[in-house]
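Researcher: We plan to redesign the surface later, but first we want a full-length starting point. C-alpha cells attached.
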C-alpha cells in the first residue's frame, strides 16, 4: 500500500528500511523522503515505521489500520 503519495513510498519500503536498521523516523525521512512534502502521511508513516521496527521489518496490523484510517479520512 502506498503511504506517501507525494514520493510514492509504500509500507513495504518503510518496513525494508526499518529492518535494515534505520534508527529513527527522521533518518527514514532523509532516506525515503516520506512525509517531507505535504505532510499528510506523517502519522501513518510513523505508525508503520514503529510497527515494522517492533515486528522485525514487517508492517504490523496497527500500522496498517492507521494507514487505512488516514486514507479514508482524506
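Model: Full-length starting sequence:
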Amino acid at each position: 500500500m502506498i503511504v506517501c503519495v507525494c514520493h510514492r513510498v509504500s509500507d513495504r519500503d518503510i518496513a525494508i528500511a526499518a529492518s535494515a536498521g534505520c534508527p529513527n523516523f527522521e533518518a527514514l525521512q532523509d532516506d525515503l523522503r516520506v512525509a517531507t512534502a505535504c505532510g499528510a502521511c506523517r502519522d501513518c508513516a510513523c505508525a508503520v515505521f514503529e510497527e515494522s521496527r517492533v515486528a522485525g521489518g514487517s508492517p504490523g496490523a496497527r500500522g496498517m489500520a492507521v494507514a487505512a484510517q488516514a486514507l479514508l479520512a482524506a
